[in-house]
Give the backbone structure.
Amino acid sequence: MKAHEAGTLPTDVYLSFVSSLFGNRGTLFTGMVVHILSCFIVYGYSQANFYLWLAAVFASVFAYRLYWFRRFDRTEKTLLSFRDIVRWEVSYVYGAAATALLLGIASGYAVVVLRDPYVSFMCIAVTMASMVSIVGRNFGSPLAVSLQTLGCCVPIILACLFTQQIHLILMSLLLVPFGLTTRSMATGVRDFLYRNVLASRELARLVDRFDVALKTISHGLIMADREGVVQVANRRAPDLLKLQDDGRLEGQTLLPLLKRSLGSGIGQLRTAMERAEEERFAEALVQLPDDSYINFTVSRRSEGGIVVVFEDVTARFIADEKIRYMARYDALTGLPNAHYFRELCRERLSRGSDQACLLLLDVEGFRHVNDVRGHRVGDGLLQEVARRLSSVSAHRFVIARMIGDRFAILITGDAELDLFGEASSLHAAVQGSYSVDDHSLSVSVNGGYVLLPNHELSMEQWEIKADLALNDSKLKGNGALSCFLPEMDAIYFEGQRLRADLRQALRDKQLTVVYQPMYLPDGSAVESCEALVRWTHPQKGPIAPNIFVPLAEDMGIVSEISRYVMDQACRDCASWPEPVAVSVNLSVHDLRSADVVGWVTEALEEHKLPAQRLHVEVTESFFMDDPAAVCTILERLRSIGVTISIDDFGTGFSSLSYLDSLPLDIVKIDRAFVRDIGMQSKRMKLLRGIVQLTRELGLTVVLEGVETKQQLALINKYGLADVIQGYVFSAPVSPTELVTLLSENSVRKEAVGGAG
């Protein structure tokens, strides 16, 4: 869109163009004086009265124009509408066009009427001089330029045509390109100024936006020239730098200014500025004297100097430090965690030391403390152990809580240091009594350590070897301390091979199930049989359950073994004579998963075994971690008809409370109560009391571990059991042997019934 088209111009730009028409009064006065004076000169030379009248008209037009100029001066420009501005332009054009037309008429009259060369020359010269000023004064109005050009040129051209002199006609026609050039020049000036006005407006908007941004952003900003003098600083800059009392920052030298704020931290910022020389961009996190943190970003300006942008990151720094602390330190004890401990060990050993020792400590019976006293006391005990370790080490060693109740200590020193003595001292220091929440706890801590030269560092190997030594001390118990020995490696690798073999045995179904019958007290009939898993290793022979079952628990495959035994037991029991039942043990891992109900139901349905003929056995220790969840699973099993039995009753810490709170049908009293009942009256009284309480609750009593006829006689004499399990009647037998035994039992029952 063309700038000279008034209708397309923005109102403020159009107003500026029209205002330029009323601007330069000096040329207006000069022009009018010259015009009137030239008329008098021509009159004096030619005695033509026409020019006296023309001088009077010039004066009238000048008065008209002066009137509108003064009115425009008194007008409030900001209130003008676009239409108002158009009317002001028209009022100006009337006066300007009239002046140009009078000049043209004066020249034409001299050419046609007077035909005097001097008069013609003077009039045309004044007219052409006036036309030259049209561009400079009237570029703001295309209409004014066009009308003035026509007013000056058309009368002269017409006058030359009337003379019918060919040389005058040709000369007058040269006014056409002159007029067009004048108009074109005015348009060019107007377009140039229009573009500059728009550019100025855009620049003003940008400056305004930049100013708003500087005032409103939360960051501080300082711009300095190549001499380091501050040129620009926003209002946040003095606030962030604590320089509110320093007045305006502009004009001050940057580095001394920042030094007053940062103190010793100026060195970090100076380093960042030096890096920015090469990289054009650098950052520095600086701590101020008031412990706040400012992050500076320094960048180089293309014309020289620097831009420094900074923000207060105190809250973010504290949050990051907290996250970093949480990632590195144990929340309970405040000690480094296992991951950070390994980092600290590498850092400590990188400093160089002649020898090192890794000591692992494990609180003996910690689970018992949790179960009996509660987790709050257990947590308090761990905190006290951590405090004692920290106070004894006095920052000489690296201490960490690894996991659970296990702690690790790295001891380093020169060749003169007695590592064994240091490890023994630390181990001894954590033994003894602790006071936690008004509870006095006597604690034994087992320890295992490994001594290795520093240059052989491998944290994984160190931890494995120290863990092997710790396992050895835990087997000894009572706060033992063991040093790693080479043969422990062999034991460890043997254990790893055994793990692999057990996994393969489960995969290849090489585990077998045997059954131990449970009889009526008089031995007349088999009530049920307990399914027991066995493993015969191809090279090592039979592996005891107390070895491979804990191994399976540690490997996380004990639930797979439970499913395998459950499936086999249901298959075998379905072929036994009714109502003989089968009893299957469930592990704590089984009861932590709601899937157990699904695969028990699946086994019953697959082998068409009535649920009443399946008993599941659980030990009371399973209920201590999450009794509500375990109770829910047992109730679901019981709801489908499965009988629930609690095994090894009496060996836990709160046995009697479970008899009333859990969905139980059978209580299997541990063999510890049966042993020596004929020789210890107290044990007999305790057993009788448990049996009486159990029966009053409507539960069936099973005594396990009955080995001798003397024990059996006493049990029958006092009526202490509903069912007997033990070698006095039968050892565990294979499925084939059990079928034979059950057949003989059935024949015996029929014979007894027939004799009756």
Q: What stands out?
A: The longest helix spans residues 175-216. The mean pLDDT is 85. The CA atoms of residues 707 and 727 lie 5 Å apart. The chain has 27 helices and 21 strands.
